[in-house]
Design a protein that fits this description.
The chain has 315 residues and is of the alpha/beta class. It has helices at 6-16, 29-35, 53-62, 66-71, 80-92, 106-114, 126-140, 151-165, 182-194, 210-217, 239-248, 257-271, 281-288; strands at 25-26, 38-43, 73-76, 96-101, 118-122, 143-144, 173-177, 199-205, 251-255, 297-302. This is Threonine dehydratase, catabolic.
């Protein structure tokens, strides 16, 4: 497997830039004072479909050949990738078949349907998802676009960090949440090429800490029965991204749900923007380890803003 080069990532950005938002980088004097450092938030909560996933899906669809385009795309997802792939397919004028567990949130199903995706429901187990997806692919000839363990998806996610470096900020550290690892892997690649001295720190919930355990053991350890408020990080780390992480990520920090909620609330109160719990994990990790980051310039990727406002974890 050949990893994307910096030129590949730049070409991906040119390929998808008309289909995505160039999201802003914001800061908060109040949060900087609390943290004792300068933080620059890359606001992917303002991205198309409300999350960074729009980047990878757009890139993967854009790189399909003509025959594959005719047959459409398929995936299994109950989260942001489902909507991102449905939207990318709609933009490309091709079908999208989305396998979703029967207990997926209605707000996620509505998003997929709104972008023209065809939902095929299955039992809420990984085995059922994969079996149903295989059936869909066999029936339709659609191309499976994995949510994160796909090199074209990783290449697309890498464009987020590329935009951060275009801000001409000399980051000491860049932080990103880690679930399947597509965002982290892409961020690590871009940063390694542009500024090898900059540290890459991942953040992960304690209740879904397979990336942390895999990083420590230097072998991929799948997550079993994850439990965390950060629902976007419940998935196990992908093989492609694990290899990138071993090469280019400096550390993975973990936080509990109470710490995640505290960081989430801080962003709502001080920055007046909507983020989902997964998005708050890096700030939670920074606040938990403040002494480690004192007087640095820190880039934090706010990964998405798709949260059910009726179920906010604070009042």
């Amino acid at each position: 497997m050949s990893l994307p080069s910096l030129e590949d990532i730049k070409e991906a950005h040119d390929r998808i830039k008309s289909f995505i938002h160039h999201t802003p980088v914001l800061s908060s004097e109040a949060i900087n004072k609390i943290a004792g450092t300068e933080i620059y938030f890359k606001c992917e909560n303002f991205q198309k479909v409300g999350a960074f996933k729009a980047r990878g899906a757009a890139n993967a669809v854009s790189k399909l050949g003509q025959e594959a385009m005719r047959n459409g795309v398929a995936t299994h997802s109950s989260g942001n990738h489902a909507a991102a792939l449905a939207r990318a397919a709609k933009v490309g004028g091709i079908p999208a078949y989305i396998v979703m567990p029967s207990n997926a949130p209605e707000i996620k199903k509505k998003a997929v349907k709104g972008y023209g995706g065809e939902i095929i429901e299955c039992e809420p187990t990984l085995e059922a998802r994969e079996r149903t997806l295989d059936e869909v692919v066999a029936k339709t000839g659609a191309t499976f676009i994995h949510p994160y363990d796909n090199i074209h998806v990783v290449e697309g996610q890498a464009t987020c960090a590329l935009e951060m470096w275009q801000e001409k900020i000399d980051f000491d550290t860049i932080m990103a949440p880690v679930g399947g690892g597509g965002l982290l892997g892409g961020t690590a690649l871009t940063t390694h090429y542009i500024s090898p001295k900059t540290k890459i720190i991942a953040a992960e919930p304690e209740g879904a800490n397979d990336a942390y355990r895999s990083f420590q053991a230097k072998e991929l350890i799948p997550m079993k029965n994850p439990k965390t408020i950060a629902d976007g990080l419940l998935t196990s780390l992908g093989k492609i991204n694990f290899e990138i992480i071993l090469q280019h990520v400096d550390d993975i920090l973990t936080v509990n749900d109470d710490e995640i909620i505290l960081a989430m609330r801080l962003i709502y109160e001080r920055m007046k923007i909507v983020i989902e719990p997964s998005c708050a994990v890096p700030l939670a990790a920074l606040l938990k380890n403040k002494e480690r980051f004192q007087n640095q310039k820190i880039g934090i990727i706010l990964s998405g803003g798709n949260v059910d406002l009726a179920k906010l974890p604070f009042k």
